[in-house]
Amino acid sequence: MTKIVVVHTGPVTVEPLKVQFAEQMPDARVVNIVDDSLLADVRAAGRLTPEVSRRLYAYMSSAQDMGADIILNACSSVGEATDVLRGLIRTPIVKVDEAMAEAASALGARIGVVATVSTTLEPTVRLIRRKAAEEGREVDVTECIAQGAFDALLAGDAARHDDIVTRAIIELAGHVDVIVLAQVSMARLVPALGSLPVPVLSSPQSGVAAVRRALTGAA
Q1: Which Pfam families has this protein been placed in (predicted)?
Q2: What DSSP string describes 60-85?
Q3: Is the per-residue pLDDT at 219 higher than 50?
Q4: Do the domains at 3-96+205-218 and 98-203 have one common CATH topology?
């Protein structure tokens, strides 16, 4: 049985990815490692720190020792650490937002990125620009922080979080060609957005699809 280890920096990413694995890879065994201090420490520092990167390495090293066939990093805020860890961990590592970033510039040159924390927004924007450059595309990225949404989610007020983020998405839609949702936890809003003039990309579905493709390629 295929074993996939997912490293989370908080509990809110567990369920959305669990749903996608059940739909796309129902026969796989998925093991979740959750440490909510990782994101808390990144937010407190305002950036990815060496200490967080070392803890992330420890979790991914443990995943390798567990016999994982592949590791999924579920958090964009620590995604840039994964770029380094790919050279240190033998087990293949997929970033949940990488496929989404690759798709964004193919849909338009004006890309809007919505996040609820700056520590996720900034690495997501850098990833999109890097992926666009790899394809020889020029993009204009509009950044949007849905102020107050993340604190509402941490406080257990999902309805307020959803309202703040939804309003941010709708307002941004009139100014860009495509919108990227920078956090896994925002993906559940997409079905309720209704008809918008631009596509809205989220990472759980494409991230799990990337895991499936990586495993197929490694077979």
Answers
A1: Asp_Glu_race
A2: HHHHHHTT-SEEEE--GGGHHHHHHH
A3: no
A4: yes
Instruction: Calculate ∠ Cα 204-150-120, nearest 5°.
Output: 55
Distance separating alpha carbons of residues 30 and 67, to the nearest angstrom: 12
Which CATH class for the 98-203 domain? Answer: alpha beta
pLDDT digits (tens, 9 = 90+) for 134-165: 999 999 999 999 999 988 988 889 899 999 99
Which residues touch 154 (CB under 8 Å, ≥6 apart)? none
Distance from C-alpha of 11 to C-alpha of 33, rounded to nearest angstrom: 10
| pLDDT digit string, tens, across residues 178-216 | 999 999 989 989 988 988 999 999 999 999 999 999 998
Find out whether 175 and 110 touch, Cβ atoms under 8 Å.
yes
Q: How far apart are alpha carbons 174 and 93 in whole angstroms?
A: 36
Tokens of 5: 């280890």
Tokens representing 74?
Answer: 């579920």
How many whole angstroms separate alpha carbon 213 and alpha carbon 209? 6
Residue carrying the six token digits 């809110």: 12
Contact 31, 98 (CB under 8 A): no
- Domain ranges (residues) in the chain: 3-96+205-218, 98-203
